[in-house]
Amino acid sequence: MKNFTRHWARSVRWVAACVGIGLLTACATSDNFPPAPALASTQDYNYIVGPGDALNIIVWRNPELSMSVPVRPDGKFSTPLIDELTAQGKHSVEIARDIEKSLAKYVRDPVVTVIVTSFVGPYDQQIRVVGEAAKPQALPYKQYMTVLDVMIAVGGLTDFADGNSATILRTADGGKQYSVRLRDLIRRGDVSANVQMKPGDILIIPQSFF
Question: Fewer Cβ atoms within 10 Å of its own Cβ: the N or the C terminal residue of the chain?
């Protein structure tokens, strides 16, 4: 009986804590955050390779060394003459120079070109959509990507979404949070609510309580 009582007390405290967190989340509406800047992309953006990407490696005058390889979950890849090299966190040109250095032991003056043919990107560069989206998911970032592009990719809002209380958590700005008006954008066609995304943004769509 004592064990049951202790278990019941812990359960009550856990439920109370969850309710408290829910109330805090409900109170933290987009009214508490500044509007997201309309422009966020930078012209000097370069795609960074991540696990799951596919690389087409072309070695000039050495077709037997030219091939397509996947970037493994650990961020590395291998070729016949290279045990493994790190690709994660690098641009395609950086990877090409690394391959040239490794092949120089076997090939005279190797010239390598690396083309990324399948895009996933590092986890910290992906756009994540959580909450009341039709298909919450992580998306690879694309330059000049907007919140409308993101919503098309995730299938729009659910019937229970409070679209105008959505926020963007911007890791590139030190975790600063901005409000976005998804309902106005999607259901009213208000293009002024369409804002650009940054790599690593998290789009949070809360549930409507009314």
Answer: C
